[in-house]
Amino acid sequence: MKKDDYIPLFESKAAGWRGVYWLYAISMAVSISLICIHRVMHFPQQHGLRRWAWIGISMAELWLSRRYGDGGLPRVDIFVSTADPQLEPPLMVADTVLSVMAYDYPPEKLSVYLSDDGCSDLVFYALYEASKFSRVWLPFCRSFNVELRAPNAYFSGVKQVPSDDPSLAKEWREVKKLYNEMEAQITLIMKLGKVPDHLRKHHEGLREWESGASRSDHHTILQVLIDGRGNKEVDIERKPLPMLVYLAREKRHGYPHNFKAGALNALIRVSSRISNSPIILNLDCDHCSNNSQSVRDALCFFMDDEQGHDIAYVQYPQRFDNITKNDLYGSYLRVPNEVELLAMDAHGGPLYIGSCCFHRRDALTGKKYEKGSHINWKQVNEIQEPERENQLEETAKLANCSYEENSSWGTEMGLKYGCPAEDVVTGLSIKCKGWRSVYFNPGRKGFLGVAPVTLLSSLIQQTRWSEGLFQIFLSKYCSLIYGHGKIPIQLQISYLCYNLWGANCLATLYYVTVPTFCLLKGINLFPQLSSNWILPYAYVLIAKYTYSLGEFLHCGGTLKGWYNDQRMWLYKRVTSYLFGFCQTIMRYLGFTELNFVITGKNVDDDISKRFEQEMMEFGAASSMFIILATIALFNLLTSISIARSIIIKKPATDLDSCALQILLNEVVILINLPLFEALFLRKDQGCMPASVTCQSIILAALAYMLRY
């Protein structure tokens, strides 16, 4: 294409309000510098508890202060991952698969692969049912321009039969009936816990489990449910269907399977023999398509003649369709999604966050970017793997557990092994090979997932993330070391902010306990209200929370949502990040092994109802809840003690000297109001368990008595 004829497929623009942000950042830097000067100039001369508390609070403050036409379109492979039919219901998996099969994209150029790392015949049967229903669902979506193409989400949103279009109403009833039948059949086998013998004859793939395959010990199971090559299989309108493939890679005792990274690498190899599409979309099984144009939108970045040659992946934000109005558990990650990841585009692109991401196959398999190299998309489309009689059997060998022995898979090729945050490491490695990424946040959300609906599941999820990210910091993949000279320093620091999530626990835990204890002892850790040194502290406090609130509201949040977000900010740091930090240290000392925890997507109706009413769920006994309740109760006991001292005119402390400590104490109490309610007022199943309440009261009382 001539230079004068070039029309860009996408455009990047500088964000607005940058001047306000820079003013905020510079003023905060000056104030924090003044606080550091105050800490040095007023360092306690006498030995004892005050000196050590002063040192600790200074270190905590220092830590917390960082912060073409269809014919020219390429083929696309879509990877959907699942690992446990109990935690990730097969019906949800089937809905996700159907949603991506129904993309507004030439079906003969779509290949959908399901990786079942739990090797469940229940999942295979659900996929088989979805393959049959797709012959009706895809034409229905095309005919009536259905945008939300996950059947369950669509029918849940359209409660009544459409009355304005008779033809739509007729087909709606018929398709809804067929979906209800599929849903009932899948629900039935889930209740049975197995696929009955009379149903196994429906597809030869179901016989694979007759040899006694188990979740952790089985041969490779590779089945093509819909063969889209050569338009062999069609829907009820005689239009071609996308290819649909099921894979459960081989697992044997004694062979490391490397969790999700190993499953995706097996899919990369298997798909290279079957469809070998140059573009790959990977999704978690709970992230269904919410935008039928997402594939075409993503290709605008890859296929741009001047700007697209070095783009390795296009990352969509992870969104959820079950978020409450005020985002009870902060699952939306509003500011990271709307601001932080978007800002990384200026320095090489966002992190790869494991799902909702379109990849260039070459980059994902380890190829380095060579400046000036271009891909001929039409030529790529002409490449076809010759079909052989034994092709499926040969292809299955690529998913055998011994295939990767003495190979570069997991190190130089595919997703990286040895870290729970394999996605972030892989994205960093790709960028260090000369590629860049793009963050795309369209007006209509590209994908919708399922957020945790209990506090414990949310904290466990955050534990896995913080553990994996901190492991990266301590490994050779630390961005400051691995990325040195390969990616911009700004991008190195951006990665570092996430890698150090776990380490945040130390400063936060110190800040919500030690100043409170010192308040009981009459030890002041902050300047007096009458001192000029109070000004930088006051400015940082006011500016930080004013900016935080303004940013949160600007990103579409609510005032109560911001309050919930502040609570989760604290809860994550004193539990999830603490556990992730300690587990990482224990692993490096050889006491624990790498583990991968799946976040459950299946909850009962009572929990869902309380979640919709925005009532925090504390119903399960957990050491995390003991920590949270102990901190809250200790601060409450301290507040009562200080109030009592003031009321009887015998203050135990100088209010002028300890005003900021009292304010900090009251803020911790205010944040924990829902926790106090769960401890003492609620009687439902989501209240704090009695065992947790008793242990927390004892620990808080012991901490309180240490004042004497």
UniProtKB/TrEMBL annotation:
Which UniProt keyword terms apply here? Cell wall biogenesis/degradation, Glycosyltransferase, Membrane, Transferase, Transmembrane, Transmembrane helix
**Mainly resides where?**
membrane
Where Mn(2+) is bound, by residue?
260, 284
Pfam families for this protein:
Cellulose_synt
Q: Which InterPro entries match?
A: Cellulose_synth, Nucleotide-diphossugar_trans
> How is it placed in the membrane, per its record?
Multi-pass membrane protein
Which residues participate directly in catalysis?
117, 423
Where along the chain is UDP-alpha-D-glucose bound?
A: 81, 88, 117
Q: Which locations, inside or outside the cell, does it occupy?
A: Endomembrane system
Q: Which domain of life is it from?
A: Eukaryota
GO cellular component terms? endomembrane system
List this protein's GO terms for biological process: cell wall organization
Q: Which residues cross the membrane?
A: 20-41, 577-598, 618-637
Q: Output the Gene Ontology terms for molecular function.
A: glycosyltransferase activity
Query: What's this protein's name?
Result: Cellulose synthase-like protein E6
From which source organism is this entry? Salvia divinorum (Maria pastora)
